Amino acid sequence: MATLQDLTAQLLNNRALGEIAGTFKQQDIIEIWSDLRKLIAHCYVGTEGSVKRTDNANMLLLRIRTGLANAISQVMGIALDEAYGKADEFIGRLPSVLESLDLDIQAMLDGDPAAENKSITVLAYPGYLAIQTYRLAHELVLMGIPMIPRIMSEHAHSLTGIDINPGATIGKSFFIDHGTGIVIGETCVIGDNVKIYQGVTLGALSTRKGRQLVGIRRHPTIENNVTIYAGAVILGGDTVIGKYSTIGGGTFIIKSIPPYSKVSMQMPQMRIEQDLRAREGDSLFEIPE
Fold it and tell me: How much is the average pLDDT of 261-287?
């Protein structure tokens, strides 16, 4: 029987990737993400001018700065001083992120009668959580920081069931309603005032080329003012959904759609049989012995 030392050697043999520091912890990124969420929530709740609100925001910013600098140093293999510079750059981008989120929140209020106010959208809506995480993670992608944005996005994915790759490009006033099962791929481009419902896939056509397609457009373009209903599947880097189009639920699209279009599936035939002899509580689908 192999000794514990032998098993350890077998497990570790030739598996060290050397891509990030051995001290790197996924949980550290999740804690940074959590602090960013708390910070943004502080921006929308509480009383304007409150000293406690300001103190809490300052404390969170300091913690985010320190945690992010350490994480950047580990994933990029750079000195801590340089990593702090990148953390400061990210923090400097937060006001513009909040401006984008303001528009997203308003889009949710405009598009969903069940959204009673901004607070419930910020604190309770999974669509907002997914969009918020995307907007934060996307800034890190634009800065060329690896690993961290993907961990943030996948954590939000695990909580919401909404999978938005942080490399995607998404315009202003984006609205996700319900959201479960939505997939938005890395090279997808989405314009302004777009609304999508649960189960929508904006994906790539299946390929075996793998790493050869890194950096090549594989996902569709959705132009401004498009609505995509539940369960629609839109695939391919050459596929463009033209502005002001409405894509019906359950459609499968791999070719471009011109602007101002309505796309829908033919309504399937539904058969209804009424059995007036059935008694209350009986099943109409029971099989007789």
Answer: 70
Which of these, 180, 185, 231, 228, lies nearest to 205 by C-alpha position? 185
In a domain, 278, yes or no: no
Q: Per residue in 56-73, pLDDT tens? A: 999 999 999 999 999 999
Domain boundary among 116, 133, 161: 161
Q: 269, 285 in Cβ contact below 8 A?
A: no
Q: How far apart are CA 47 and CA 30, in angstroms?
A: 28
Residue 14 lies in a domain: no
Task: Please answer whether residues 168 and 190 qualify as being in contact, where contact means their C-beta atoms are separated by less than 8 angstroms.
Answer: yes
* Of 183, 191, 44, residue with least CA distance to 106: 44
Helices (H), 77-224: 80-111, 118-124, 126-142, 148-160
What backbone torsions phi and psi does residue 257 show, to the nearest 5 degrees?
Answer: -115, 130
Buried b (16+ CB within 10 A) or exposed e, 137-163: bbbbbeeebebbbbbbbbbbbeebbbb
Q: Which residue's structure tokens are 């510079």?
A: 85
Phi/psi-derived region of residue 181, left when phi > 0, alpha when psi is between -120 and 50, beta in every other case:
left
Least confident of 19-23, 37-41, 106-110, 160-164: 19-23
251 and 144 together in one domain? no
| In the predicted structure, residue 46 carries a pLDDT above the cut 90 | no
